[in-house]
C-alpha cells in the first residue's frame, strides 16, 4: 500500500508512452522534470498543497531512455517542500546525467549548499504560483539568490502571466541567470502579439540574463488537440507562443517534458507525443540543437564555479 493517499482526482503519469516520431538530437536534455517520492522512502512535505502518485528516479530514467534523451534536469517539486532528498538521490544515481534545481530556505548552511552542488544542483526555484506554495518574503529570496550566485547557480522562477508586472522589479534585480518556467504561463486565448505576451517578450529582450522553458503545452492549451491517440499536431493553440520565443531567443530557451505532470486536471499526455510537439515550435535542425542540446548543456554542464 502506498504511504500517502493521493489528492482526489489525481491523474497518474501515462504508462507505456509511444516512441516519438521526432528523433531528438544526440545529447538532448529533458530540462524540466520531477521525481515524486516514492512516498514511503522520501515522504512528501507536511506543507504540500497536493499529494501525488509516486514517480521514482528509475521510472524517470526509463522514460529518458525511451524518448531518446541523454540527460535530465530534475526540478524540486513543491510537494517535497525544501526537503531535497528525493531529487538529490536521483542526481546521485544518474552517473552525472542529471542536474538539479533545489528549493532552499534562508536557514541553509554553506556546507549544505556545497553538498547540493557536489550532488549536481545548479540552481534554486522561486515559486510564485499561489495554488502551489505559501508566500516567501522577497527579502528572504533575495538573500538566497545572493548566496547561490557565487556558486555559479541560477534562479528558476515560476509565476502566472498576470503577475509579471508586479514581480518585474524583483525579477530584474536578481543577480544571476534567471530561467522562467513554462513561458511564464501565458493565456493562449489572447493574441500572441497582444499586450500580455508582448510584456513577456519585452522581459526577455531587455534582460539578456533571462531564459525561458518553452514547456508545458499540455497545461497552457485550451483548444488542444491533446497529445493522445497518435496525435501529431497536439496543442496547436500553444505553438505560436512557444515558436515566437524559440525563434526570437534561440540561445536562451530550454525544453522539458514536465514528467510526471503534477496537477493536470483534464488529461495526462502521452510523453512520446509531447516530444513530437518539439519540431512545431523549433522547426529547423539548428533551432532544435540549440533548444535540446547546446543551451541546456552550457547552462547545466558548463564550468563549475565552486572551488
Ligand atoms: O503547474 C503545476 O502544478 C506545477 C507544479 C509543480 C510543482 O509542484 O513543483 O511544478 C511544475 O512545473 C508545475
Please tally the helical runs, counting DSSP H or I stretches of 4 or more residues: 11
**Helical coverage, percent range:** 25-40%
Major pleated sheet: 8 strands, parallel
C-alpha end-to-end distance: 45 Å
Strand elements, count = 8
Portion in beta strands: 5-15%
Principal-axes shape call: globular
Could you characterize the architecture of this molecule?
This protein is α/β, with parallel strands linked by helices and about 300 residues long. Helices cover about 35% and strands about 10% of the residues. It contains eleven helices and eight strands. It has helices at about 55-65, 85-90, 110-120, 140-150, 165-170, 195-205, 215-220, 240-250, 270-275, 280, 285-300, and strands at about 30-35, 70-75, 100, 120-125, 155-160, 180, 210-215, 255. The chain has an eight-stranded parallel β-sheet, with helices on both faces. Strand 2 (about 70-75), helix 2 (about 85-90) and strand 3 (about 100) form a beta-alpha-beta unit. The longest helix is centred in the last third of the chain and has 17 residues, at about 285-300. The protein is globular and about 45 Å long. The mean pLDDT is about 95. 2-oxo-2H-pyran-4,6-dicarboxylic acid (0GZ) binds next to loops. The site of 2-oxo-2H-pyran-4,6-dicarboxylic acid has 9 residues, from loops.
Amino acid at each position: 500500500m502506498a504511504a500517502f493517499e493521493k489528492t482526489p482526482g489525481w491523474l497518474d503519469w501515462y504508462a507505456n508512452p509511444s516512441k516519438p516520431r521526432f528523433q531528438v538530437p544526440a545529447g538532448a536534455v529533458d530540462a524540466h522534470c520531477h521525481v515524486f517520492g516514492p512516498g514511503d522512502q522520501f515522504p512528501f512535505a507536511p506543507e504540500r498543497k497536493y499529494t501525488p502518485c509516486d514517480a521514482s528516479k528509475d521510472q524517470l530514467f526509463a522514460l529518458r531512455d525511451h524518448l531518446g534523451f541523454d540527460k535530465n534536469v530534475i526540478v524540486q517539486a513543491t510537494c517535497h517542500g525544501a526537503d531535497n532528498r528525493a531529487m538529490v538521490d536521483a542526481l546521485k544515481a544518474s552517473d552525472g546525467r542529471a542536474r538539479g534545481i533545489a528549493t532552499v530556505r534562508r536557514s541553509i548552511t554553506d556546507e549544505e549548499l556545497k553538498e547540493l552542488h557536489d550532488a549536481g544542483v545548479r540552481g534554486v526555484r522561486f515559486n510564485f504560483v499561489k495554488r502551489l506554495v505559501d508566500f516567501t518574503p522577497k527579502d528572504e529570496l533575495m538573500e538566497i539568490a545572493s548566496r547561490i550566485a557565487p556558486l555559479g547557480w541560477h534562479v528558476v522562477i515560476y509565476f502566472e502571466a498576470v503577475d509579471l508586472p508586479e514581480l518585474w522589479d524583483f525579477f530584474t534585480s536578481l543577480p544571476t541567470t534567471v530561467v522562467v518556467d513554462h513561458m511564464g504561463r501565458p493565456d493562449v486565448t489572447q493574441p500572441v502579439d497582444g499586450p500580455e505576451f508582448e510584456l513577456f517578450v519585452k522581459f526577455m529582450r531587455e534582460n539578456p540574463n533571462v531564459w525561458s522553458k518553452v514547456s508545458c503545452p499540455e497545461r497552457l492549451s485550451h483548444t488542444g488537440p491533446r497529445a493522445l491517440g497518435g496525435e501529431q499536431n497536439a496543442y496547436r493553440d500553444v505553438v505560436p507562443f512557444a515558436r515566437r520565443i524559440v525563434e526570437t531567443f534561440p540561445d536562451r530557451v530550454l525544453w522539458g517534458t514536465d514528467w510526471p505532470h503534477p496537477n493536470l486536471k483534464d488529461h495526462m499526455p502521452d510523453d512520446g507525443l509531447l516530444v513530437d510537439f518539439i519540431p512545431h515550435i523549433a522547426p529547423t535542425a539548428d533551432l532544435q540543437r540549440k533548444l535540446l542540446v547546446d543551451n541546456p548543456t552550457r547552462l547545466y554542464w558548463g564550468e563549475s564555479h565552486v572551488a
